[in-house]
Structure formats: structure tokens, C-alpha cells
Amino acid sequence: MKVAMLERFEDRACRAFCRVQVAAEQAKRLLREERAQGTTEYAILVGVLVVIAIGAIVALKDPINDLWNAITNGFDELGTGND
Fold first, then answer.
1. pLDDT (tens digit, 9 = 90+) per residue, 50-80?
2. Entry pTM
3. What whole-number distance in Å separates Cα of residue 69 and Cα of residue 62?
4. I need a labelling partner for 13 at 20 to 30 A (CA). Which of 29, 50, 53, 73 fits?
5. Do 30 and 36 touch, CB atoms closer than 8 A?
6. How far apart are CA 50 and CA 79, in angstroms?
């Protein structure tokens, strides 16, 4: 009985060890693959650009709003005929 349990445990442990080895090899292969590195670089670049764009929008919100209001007021004055 104990021998059968030990054999099953060894078999499960061996399969688990093999799965870990396969996963480790796949991770190493992905890290070495240049396409994955290129994709990661593009993702980081896009993220940085998004952060810069959000920062610019927040920083320039008031001047853009003033410019927009001046443009709409100019059109309103053209429509009413006031000089």
C-alpha cells in the first residue's frame, strides 16, 4: 500500500516538475524573442505619448478654452452685425 502511494506521489511530482520546466523554457524563449521586445517597446512608447498628451491638455486647458470663447464670440458678433 505504501509503495503504491509513493509511486503515485513520485509520478505527480515528476509531472509537476516537467510542467514547471516547460513553462520556464517558454518564458526564456519569449524573453529572447525580438518581436516581443519590439512590441513591448511600442507599448511603452504609446503609453508615454498618452501621458504627455494628457499633461498637455491639462496644462493648456484654460488658454484653449479662452481661445475657443474668443472665436465663438467673434462669430456671434458677425451674426448680429455689431462692429
1. 999 999 989 999 998 999 999 999 888 887 7
2. 0.42
3. 10
4. 29
5. yes
6. 39
